[in-house]
Amino acid sequence: MYDVIIIGGGPAGSSAAVYTSRAGFRTLVIDKAPNAGALALTHKIANYPGVEEECTGKELLDRFRRQAQSFGAEYIQTTITAVDVEGDVKAVFTADGFFESKAIVIATGSKGRNRMLPGEEKLLGRGVSTCATCDGAFFVGKRVAVVGDSEEAVDEVLSLAKFGMEIEFIVPRSELQGDAEVPSHPNMTVHYKTRPLEILGDKRVEGLRVKYPNGEEGTIAVDGVFVFLSGSKPGTDFLQDQVPLDADGYMVLDSLMQSPVPGVFGAGEVRRTPVKQAVVAAADGAIAAMAVDKFLNKRAQVIPQYK
User: Fold this and answer.
1) Where is the domain boundary, 184, 211, 228?
2) Which of 27, 125, 170, 255 has the most CB atoms around it within 10 Å of its CB?
3) In terms of domains, do 107 and 239 share one?
4) Of 210, 228, 246, which residue is a domain's last?
């Protein structure tokens, strides 16, 4: 029996583990694939507060985990097969055993698209990115492609435009989705009805192969490709309707990361976070952990850990 089980060992889950284990709660972190999450695959990070030197996402995650383990948190790598979150005791069934806890934090992040572009996975973190805020500064004065047709894609284009780079905006449809509008920018070229086929390069991005509206194929030479195609979903399928989710599968959480089910909390990309950043997910984890403390100690209010 654990005090709290955290499902997911990324920045949200490991941050929660730091706080719960430091507060004296017996904490178990279940992580299916420690080196396969979005942060773990990030090749270079230079904007995480307090980390002055550039590091890889995996190195940053290793720091999170070592810190949590130093306070007593346990980590295991296995696959969740089912959960039972009804009642006072929460049950987690895995491929390697059965675990129980008084509280549970869901920090499983989001799942990638079912189909990635050829070359996308290979070059992720090496010129391929899904976050302009994270990686835009690495491409100052260079030429990049932005692939997408959503409001998110437009927001990322605007973020990249601030760095003064040349932008090739690849829109697979004949127009943008919803109310999104293409911004006006002197260094941007918009390619409507242009389908991305392959991201080219060996050790770094060298170009993007596309199919134009007339059916012809061509290559656009770029130093980076920012991909904002639809398909990413929160990793909440295993909850099996036991916890309220919205129409897109995001957990319904309050400001303290509490779900409507007592003792069940969420953090990171399982909620509708306004931005996808490691520091935001880590903050979610800290809030969720302090809400767990409140729940387990039957307090009326959260008591922050300042020391």
Assistant:
1) 228
2) 27
3) yes
4) 228
Name the residue range of residue 198's domain. Answer: 128-228
27 within a domain of the structure (yes/no): yes
Model confidence pLDDT, tens digit, residues 237-259: 889 889 999 988 899 999 999 99
- Residue in 203, 227, 8, 15 with CA at minimum distance from that of residue 112: 227
What's the average model confidence in pLDDT over 186-205? Answer: 94
Residue 246 domain-assigned (yes or no): yes
H/E segment holding residue 198: strand 195-200
Residue with tokens 């509280």: 103
Q: Please tell me whether residues 184 and 243 are part of one structural domain.
A: no
- Say which CATH number the domain at 200 has: 3.50.50.60
Q: Alpha helix (H) ranges present in 151-202? A: 151-161
56, part of any domain: yes
The neighbouring-strand residues paired with 78 are none
Q: What is the mean pLDDT of residues 48-55?
A: 89
Q: CB–CB of 210/192 below 8 Å?
A: no
Q: Are residues 216 and 241 in the same domain?
A: no
Q: How far apart are CA 36 and CA 11, in angstroms?
A: 13
Specify the pLDDT at position 114. 58
In the chain, what's the furthest Cα-to-Cα distance? 65
Q: Which of 303, 298, 301 is nearest to 103 (CA)?
A: 298
Name the domain count of the chain.
Answer: 2
In a domain, residue 53? The reply is yes
Burial status of residue 270 (CB atoms within 10 A of its CB: 0-12, 13-18, 19 or more)? buried
Both structure tokens of 167: 């932008």
Rounded CA-CA distance 289/265 in Å is: 9
User: What would the pLDDT profile of 111-169 be if each residue is shown by its tens digit?
Assistant: 666 568 999 989 988 999 877 777 888 999 999 999 988 777 887 888 888 888 999 99
3-state class (DSSP) for residue 163: coil
Q: Which has the closest alpha carbon to 29: 55, 58, 61?
A: 61
